[in-house]
Design goal:
Length: 367
Protein backbone atom coordinates (compact mmCIF):
# COMPACT_ATOMS: atom_id res chain seq x y z
CA UNK A 1 0.00 0.00 0.00
CA UNK A 2 2.90 2.33 0.80
CA UNK A 3 4.43 1.67 -2.60
CA UNK A 4 1.08 2.48 -4.20
CA UNK A 5 0.92 5.91 -2.56
CA UNK A 6 4.59 6.51 -3.38
CA UNK A 7 3.63 6.23 -7.04
CA UNK A 8 1.78 9.56 -6.75
CA UNK A 9 3.45 12.95 -6.22
CA UNK A 10 2.97 14.67 -2.89
CA UNK A 11 -0.58 15.12 -1.64
CA UNK A 12 -0.46 18.88 -2.26
CA UNK A 13 0.83 18.49 -5.80
CA UNK A 14 -1.66 15.72 -6.61
CA UNK A 15 -4.60 17.82 -5.41
CA UNK A 16 -3.29 20.85 -7.32
CA UNK A 17 -3.07 18.94 -10.61
CA UNK A 18 -6.37 17.12 -10.13
CA UNK A 19 -8.13 20.40 -9.34
CA UNK A 20 -6.73 22.05 -12.48
CA UNK A 21 -7.83 19.08 -14.57
CA UNK A 22 -11.38 18.85 -13.17
CA UNK A 23 -12.04 22.62 -13.34
CA UNK A 24 -10.91 22.85 -16.97
CA UNK A 25 -12.79 19.71 -17.97
CA UNK A 26 -16.13 20.87 -16.60
CA UNK A 27 -15.62 24.46 -17.77
CA UNK A 28 -15.16 23.17 -21.32
CA UNK A 29 -18.16 20.87 -20.80
CA UNK A 30 -20.35 23.80 -19.75
CA UNK A 31 -19.29 25.85 -22.77
CA UNK A 32 -19.96 22.98 -25.18
CA UNK A 33 -23.38 22.26 -23.70
CA UNK A 34 -24.38 25.93 -23.87
CA UNK A 35 -23.34 26.27 -27.51
CA UNK A 36 -24.66 22.92 -28.75
CA UNK A 37 -27.95 23.20 -26.87
CA UNK A 38 -28.52 26.67 -28.34
CA UNK A 39 -27.86 25.39 -31.86
CA UNK A 40 -30.13 22.40 -31.27
CA UNK A 41 -32.95 24.67 -30.09
CA UNK A 42 -32.75 26.68 -33.30
CA UNK A 43 -33.91 23.63 -35.25
CA UNK A 44 -36.29 22.05 -32.72
CA UNK A 45 -38.01 24.93 -30.93
CA UNK A 46 -40.07 25.80 -34.03
CA UNK A 47 -41.34 22.20 -34.26
CA UNK A 48 -42.24 22.15 -30.57
CA UNK A 49 -44.12 25.47 -30.60
CA UNK A 50 -45.92 24.52 -33.84
CA UNK A 51 -47.95 21.93 -31.93
CA UNK A 52 -51.21 23.45 -30.59
CA UNK A 53 -51.08 23.80 -26.83
CA UNK A 54 -47.30 23.79 -26.55
CA UNK A 55 -45.72 26.79 -24.83
CA UNK A 56 -42.34 27.85 -23.48
CA UNK A 57 -42.66 25.21 -20.74
CA UNK A 58 -42.49 22.46 -23.38
CA UNK A 59 -39.36 24.10 -24.83
CA UNK A 60 -37.70 24.08 -21.42
CA UNK A 61 -38.81 20.49 -20.92
CA UNK A 62 -37.09 19.63 -24.19
CA UNK A 63 -33.92 21.34 -22.91
CA UNK A 64 -34.12 19.27 -19.74
CA UNK A 65 -34.36 16.06 -21.79
CA UNK A 66 -31.79 16.97 -24.46
CA UNK A 67 -29.06 18.49 -22.29
CA UNK A 68 -28.22 15.17 -20.54
CA UNK A 69 -27.68 13.55 -23.95
CA UNK A 70 -25.30 16.32 -25.00
CA UNK A 71 -23.39 16.06 -21.72
CA UNK A 72 -23.07 12.28 -22.09
CA UNK A 73 -21.87 12.54 -25.67
CA UNK A 74 -19.32 15.32 -25.23
CA UNK A 75 -17.98 14.63 -21.73
CA UNK A 76 -15.14 12.44 -23.13
CA UNK A 77 -14.19 15.26 -25.55
CA UNK A 78 -14.17 17.69 -22.63
CA UNK A 79 -11.89 15.37 -20.65
CA UNK A 80 -9.49 15.24 -23.61
CA UNK A 81 -9.41 19.03 -24.03
CA UNK A 82 -9.17 19.52 -20.27
CA UNK A 83 -6.18 17.19 -20.16
CA UNK A 84 -4.37 19.00 -22.96
CA UNK A 85 -5.02 22.44 -21.44
CA UNK A 86 -3.85 21.30 -18.01
CA UNK A 87 -0.67 19.62 -19.22
CA UNK A 88 0.15 22.44 -21.65
CA UNK A 89 -0.14 25.04 -18.89
CA UNK A 90 1.97 22.96 -16.51
CA UNK A 91 4.64 22.58 -19.15
CA UNK A 92 4.52 26.18 -20.25
CA UNK A 93 5.11 27.28 -16.65
CA UNK A 94 8.01 24.81 -16.35
CA UNK A 95 6.15 22.92 -13.62
CA UNK A 96 6.56 19.60 -15.43
CA UNK A 97 10.31 20.24 -15.65
CA UNK A 98 10.39 20.90 -11.91
CA UNK A 99 8.52 17.66 -11.20
CA UNK A 100 10.85 15.65 -13.39
CA UNK A 101 13.87 17.34 -11.82
CA UNK A 102 12.53 16.19 -8.44
CA UNK A 103 12.74 12.61 -9.68
CA UNK A 104 9.15 11.99 -10.82
CA UNK A 105 8.65 9.79 -13.86
CA UNK A 106 6.18 10.63 -16.62
CA UNK A 107 3.74 8.09 -15.20
CA UNK A 108 3.96 9.70 -11.77
CA UNK A 109 3.29 13.12 -13.29
CA UNK A 110 0.15 11.73 -14.97
CA UNK A 111 -1.04 9.68 -11.99
CA UNK A 112 -3.19 12.46 -10.39
CA UNK A 113 -4.93 13.11 -13.71
CA UNK A 114 -5.60 9.42 -14.29
CA UNK A 115 -7.07 9.07 -10.80
CA UNK A 116 -9.23 12.17 -11.36
CA UNK A 117 -10.25 10.69 -14.72
CA UNK A 118 -11.39 7.54 -12.92
CA UNK A 119 -13.58 9.69 -10.68
CA UNK A 120 -15.05 11.39 -13.78
CA UNK A 121 -15.68 7.93 -15.29
CA UNK A 122 -17.63 6.79 -12.22
CA UNK A 123 -19.62 10.04 -12.24
CA UNK A 124 -20.28 9.64 -15.97
CA UNK A 125 -21.53 6.05 -15.61
CA UNK A 126 -23.87 7.01 -12.77
CA UNK A 127 -25.14 10.05 -14.69
CA UNK A 128 -25.76 7.97 -17.83
CA UNK A 129 -27.51 5.23 -15.87
CA UNK A 130 -29.74 7.39 -13.71
CA UNK A 131 -30.45 10.47 -15.81
CA UNK A 132 -29.48 10.05 -19.48
CA UNK A 133 -31.23 6.71 -20.06
CA UNK A 134 -34.72 7.75 -18.85
CA UNK A 135 -34.37 11.16 -20.53
CA UNK A 136 -33.50 9.46 -23.82
CA UNK A 137 -36.46 7.09 -23.59
CA UNK A 138 -38.86 9.96 -22.88
CA UNK A 139 -37.44 12.19 -25.62
CA UNK A 140 -37.60 9.40 -28.22
CA UNK A 141 -41.25 8.75 -27.34
CA UNK A 142 -42.01 12.48 -27.55
CA UNK A 143 -40.36 12.77 -30.95
CA UNK A 144 -42.38 9.85 -32.29
CA UNK A 145 -45.56 11.86 -31.70
CA UNK A 146 -44.00 15.02 -33.16
CA UNK A 147 -43.84 16.78 -29.78
CA UNK A 148 -47.53 16.28 -29.16
CA UNK A 149 -49.13 14.84 -26.00
CA UNK A 150 -47.33 11.69 -24.91
CA UNK A 151 -49.51 8.59 -25.20
CA UNK A 152 -49.83 6.24 -22.22
CA UNK A 153 -47.70 3.16 -22.80
CA UNK A 154 -49.96 0.19 -22.03
CA UNK A 155 -47.53 -2.34 -23.41
CA UNK A 156 -49.21 -2.64 -26.84
CA UNK A 157 -46.89 -4.13 -29.46
CA UNK A 158 -47.26 -5.18 -33.09
CA UNK A 159 -45.62 -7.77 -35.36
CA UNK A 160 -43.85 -9.74 -32.64
CA UNK A 161 -41.87 -12.97 -33.16
CA UNK A 162 -41.04 -15.34 -30.29
CA UNK A 163 -39.26 -18.68 -30.27
CA UNK A 164 -40.84 -21.63 -28.45
CA UNK A 165 -38.56 -24.66 -28.60
CA UNK A 166 -37.97 -25.31 -32.29
CA UNK A 167 -41.15 -23.47 -33.32
CA UNK A 168 -41.68 -19.77 -34.03
CA UNK A 169 -44.73 -17.83 -32.86
CA UNK A 170 -45.82 -14.75 -34.82
CA UNK A 171 -48.31 -12.31 -33.26
CA UNK A 172 -49.89 -9.47 -35.20
CA UNK A 173 -50.82 -7.49 -32.08
CA UNK A 174 -50.46 -7.84 -28.30
CA UNK A 175 -52.28 -5.64 -25.81
CA UNK A 176 -51.98 -5.42 -22.05
CA UNK A 177 -49.39 -6.64 -19.61
CA UNK A 178 -48.78 -9.71 -17.48
CA UNK A 179 -51.36 -12.50 -17.41
CA UNK A 180 -54.00 -10.07 -18.73
CA UNK A 181 -52.21 -9.78 -22.08
CA UNK A 182 -54.26 -10.69 -25.17
CA UNK A 183 -52.77 -11.82 -28.47
CA UNK A 184 -54.44 -11.12 -31.80
CA UNK A 185 -53.61 -12.84 -35.08
CA UNK A 186 -51.42 -15.69 -33.82
CA UNK A 187 -49.46 -17.93 -36.21
CA UNK A 188 -47.35 -20.82 -34.94
CA UNK A 189 -44.71 -22.08 -37.38
CA UNK A 190 -44.08 -25.63 -36.19
CA UNK A 191 -40.61 -27.04 -36.93
CA UNK A 192 -38.90 -30.33 -36.17
CA UNK A 193 -35.46 -30.75 -34.58
CA UNK A 194 -33.85 -30.24 -38.01
CA UNK A 195 -35.53 -26.84 -38.38
CA UNK A 196 -37.87 -28.11 -41.11
CA UNK A 197 -41.38 -26.67 -41.25
CA UNK A 198 -43.95 -29.40 -40.49
CA UNK A 199 -47.09 -27.40 -39.83
CA UNK A 200 -48.72 -24.00 -39.35
CA UNK A 201 -51.29 -23.32 -36.64
CA UNK A 202 -53.28 -20.09 -36.68
CA UNK A 203 -55.68 -18.56 -34.19
CA UNK A 204 -57.70 -15.36 -34.06
CA UNK A 205 -56.97 -14.69 -30.38
CA UNK A 206 -54.71 -15.98 -27.64
CA UNK A 207 -54.85 -15.62 -23.85
CA UNK A 208 -52.69 -16.83 -21.01
CA UNK A 209 -53.62 -20.27 -19.63
CA UNK A 210 -51.31 -22.13 -17.27
CA UNK A 211 -47.75 -22.02 -18.59
CA UNK A 212 -48.88 -21.55 -22.20
CA UNK A 213 -51.27 -19.62 -24.43
CA UNK A 214 -54.75 -20.77 -25.40
CA UNK A 215 -55.72 -20.10 -29.00
CA UNK A 216 -59.37 -19.67 -29.97
CA UNK A 217 -60.75 -20.69 -33.38
CA UNK A 218 -57.46 -22.45 -34.13
CA UNK A 219 -56.75 -24.03 -37.47
CA UNK A 220 -53.76 -26.20 -38.45
CA UNK A 221 -52.21 -26.78 -41.86
CA UNK A 222 -50.16 -29.98 -42.15
CA UNK A 223 -47.22 -29.64 -44.55
CA UNK A 224 -46.95 -33.36 -45.27
CA UNK A 225 -50.60 -33.90 -46.24
CA UNK A 226 -51.41 -30.38 -47.42
CA UNK A 227 -54.69 -30.39 -45.48
CA UNK A 228 -56.32 -27.91 -43.07
CA UNK A 229 -57.83 -29.09 -39.79
CA UNK A 230 -60.11 -27.06 -37.53
CA UNK A 231 -58.96 -27.78 -33.97
CA UNK A 232 -60.94 -25.13 -32.07
CA UNK A 233 -59.05 -24.38 -28.85
CA UNK A 234 -55.46 -25.44 -28.32
CA UNK A 235 -52.49 -24.56 -26.11
CA UNK A 236 -49.28 -23.29 -27.71
CA UNK A 237 -46.09 -21.64 -26.54
CA UNK A 238 -45.67 -23.46 -23.24
CA UNK A 239 -42.99 -21.72 -21.18
CA UNK A 240 -43.22 -18.47 -23.18
CA UNK A 241 -43.66 -15.51 -20.82
CA UNK A 242 -45.61 -12.34 -21.54
CA UNK A 243 -42.53 -10.12 -21.40
CA UNK A 244 -41.02 -12.13 -24.23
CA UNK A 245 -43.84 -10.85 -26.44
CA UNK A 246 -43.74 -7.27 -25.18
CA UNK A 247 -39.98 -6.95 -25.77
CA UNK A 248 -40.52 -6.48 -29.49
CA UNK A 249 -37.92 -3.71 -29.64
CA UNK A 250 -35.26 -2.58 -27.20
CA UNK A 251 -33.65 0.86 -27.26
CA UNK A 252 -30.26 0.34 -25.60
CA UNK A 253 -29.72 4.08 -25.10
CA UNK A 254 -33.03 4.41 -23.26
CA UNK A 255 -32.32 1.66 -20.70
CA UNK A 256 -30.06 1.59 -17.66
CA UNK A 257 -27.28 -0.98 -17.42
CA UNK A 258 -29.29 -3.39 -15.26
CA UNK A 259 -32.49 -2.95 -17.32
CA UNK A 260 -30.63 -3.57 -20.58
CA UNK A 261 -28.94 -6.65 -19.12
CA UNK A 262 -32.34 -8.03 -18.06
CA UNK A 263 -33.81 -7.25 -21.51
CA UNK A 264 -30.96 -9.12 -23.21
CA UNK A 265 -31.61 -12.17 -21.04
CA UNK A 266 -35.31 -12.08 -21.95
CA UNK A 267 -34.55 -11.71 -25.65
CA UNK A 268 -32.14 -14.64 -25.52
CA UNK A 269 -34.84 -16.79 -23.96
CA UNK A 270 -37.19 -15.61 -26.71
CA UNK A 271 -34.66 -16.78 -29.31
CA UNK A 272 -33.90 -13.35 -30.73
CA UNK A 273 -30.49 -11.98 -31.76
CA UNK A 274 -28.83 -9.83 -29.09
CA UNK A 275 -25.29 -9.19 -30.38
CA UNK A 276 -25.80 -5.48 -31.02
CA UNK A 277 -27.44 -5.01 -27.62
CA UNK A 278 -24.62 -6.89 -25.90
CA UNK A 279 -22.13 -4.54 -27.56
CA UNK A 280 -24.13 -1.55 -26.28
CA UNK A 281 -24.20 -3.09 -22.81
CA UNK A 282 -20.41 -3.43 -22.70
CA UNK A 283 -20.06 0.08 -24.12
CA UNK A 284 -21.99 1.47 -21.15
CA UNK A 285 -18.85 0.52 -19.20
CA UNK A 286 -16.09 1.18 -21.74
CA UNK A 287 -17.55 4.56 -22.80
CA UNK A 288 -17.22 6.30 -19.41
CA UNK A 289 -13.81 4.68 -18.86
CA UNK A 290 -12.46 6.65 -21.81
CA UNK A 291 -12.02 9.46 -19.26
CA UNK A 292 -9.20 7.38 -17.73
CA UNK A 293 -7.55 7.01 -21.14
CA UNK A 294 -7.55 10.70 -22.09
CA UNK A 295 -4.66 11.80 -19.78
CA UNK A 296 -2.47 9.14 -21.36
CA UNK A 297 -3.37 10.15 -24.93
CA UNK A 298 -2.99 13.85 -24.15
CA UNK A 299 0.34 13.33 -22.37
CA UNK A 300 2.24 14.11 -25.57
CA UNK A 301 1.39 17.77 -24.86
CA UNK A 302 3.10 17.60 -21.47
CA UNK A 303 6.65 16.56 -22.20
CA UNK A 304 9.44 17.84 -24.34
CA UNK A 305 8.02 21.30 -24.95
CA UNK A 306 10.89 23.00 -23.15
CA UNK A 307 13.35 21.41 -25.53
CA UNK A 308 11.42 21.81 -28.77
CA UNK A 309 9.23 24.83 -28.08
CA UNK A 310 6.48 23.29 -30.22
CA UNK A 311 3.61 23.60 -27.79
CA UNK A 312 0.93 23.95 -30.47
CA UNK A 313 2.23 20.98 -32.48
CA UNK A 314 2.26 18.72 -29.43
CA UNK A 315 -1.22 19.87 -28.39
CA UNK A 316 -2.51 19.05 -31.88
CA UNK A 317 -0.86 15.63 -31.68
CA UNK A 318 -2.64 14.94 -28.37
CA UNK A 319 -5.96 16.05 -29.83
CA UNK A 320 -5.39 13.89 -32.92
CA UNK A 321 -4.76 10.80 -30.79
CA UNK A 322 -7.87 11.48 -28.73
CA UNK A 323 -10.16 12.10 -31.68
CA UNK A 324 -8.74 9.06 -33.48
CA UNK A 325 -9.79 7.01 -30.46
CA UNK A 326 -13.36 8.34 -30.68
CA UNK A 327 -13.51 7.54 -34.40
CA UNK A 328 -12.22 4.01 -33.78
CA UNK A 329 -14.67 3.55 -30.91
CA UNK A 330 -17.67 4.53 -33.04
CA UNK A 331 -16.45 2.38 -35.93
CA UNK A 332 -16.00 -0.70 -33.72
CA UNK A 333 -19.44 -0.19 -32.16
CA UNK A 334 -21.00 0.08 -35.63
CA UNK A 335 -19.27 -3.13 -36.69
CA UNK A 336 -20.59 -4.78 -33.55
CA UNK A 337 -24.14 -3.66 -34.38
CA UNK A 338 -23.73 -5.24 -37.82
CA UNK A 339 -22.48 -8.47 -36.28
CA UNK A 340 -19.02 -8.18 -37.84
CA UNK A 341 -17.30 -7.89 -34.42
CA UNK A 342 -18.11 -9.88 -31.27
CA UNK A 343 -19.83 -7.65 -28.66
CA UNK A 344 -16.95 -7.62 -26.18
CA UNK A 345 -14.40 -6.84 -28.91
CA UNK A 346 -16.58 -4.07 -30.36
CA UNK A 347 -16.82 -2.31 -27.00
CA UNK A 348 -13.34 -2.85 -25.56
CA UNK A 349 -10.92 -3.24 -28.49
CA UNK A 350 -10.48 0.54 -29.12
CA UNK A 351 -9.91 1.16 -25.40
CA UNK A 352 -7.14 -1.41 -25.03
CA UNK A 353 -5.64 -0.56 -28.43
CA UNK A 354 -5.24 3.13 -27.60
CA UNK A 355 -4.13 2.28 -24.08
CA UNK A 356 -1.23 0.43 -25.70
CA UNK A 357 -0.63 3.27 -28.19
CA UNK A 358 -0.61 5.88 -25.42
CA UNK A 359 1.84 3.83 -23.36
CA UNK A 360 4.09 3.30 -26.38
CA UNK A 361 4.18 7.04 -27.20
CA UNK A 362 4.84 7.93 -23.57
CA UNK A 363 7.62 5.37 -23.14
CA UNK A 364 9.30 6.31 -26.38
CA UNK A 365 9.25 10.07 -25.76
CA UNK A 366 9.99 10.22 -22.04
CA UNK A 367 10.56 6.97 -20.19
Amino acid sequence: MTNLFNFFPSRTLSLYMAKMFVIRTFAIMAGLVLILQSLDLLSESGKILAVPGNTDSEVWWYVGLRAPQIISTFLPFSVLLGTILTLSQLNQNSEVISMKAAGLSAHQVLAPLILAGLGVAVLSFTFNDRIVAPATATLDAWKRVDYGPLPVDRGDRQNVWVRSGDSLIEVDDIRGRGDAARLTGVTVHERDDKQRLIGITTGTQGVREGDGWRLDNARRFDIATGKFTDIGKTIVGRGVRTDQFTLSSVNADGLSFSALSAAIDDLKEAGRPTMSLEGSLWHKLSGPLSAVLMPLLGAVAAFGIARSGKLFVRAVMGMALGFLYFVSDNFALAMGNLGAYPPFLAAWAPFFLFLAIGEAVLLRTEE
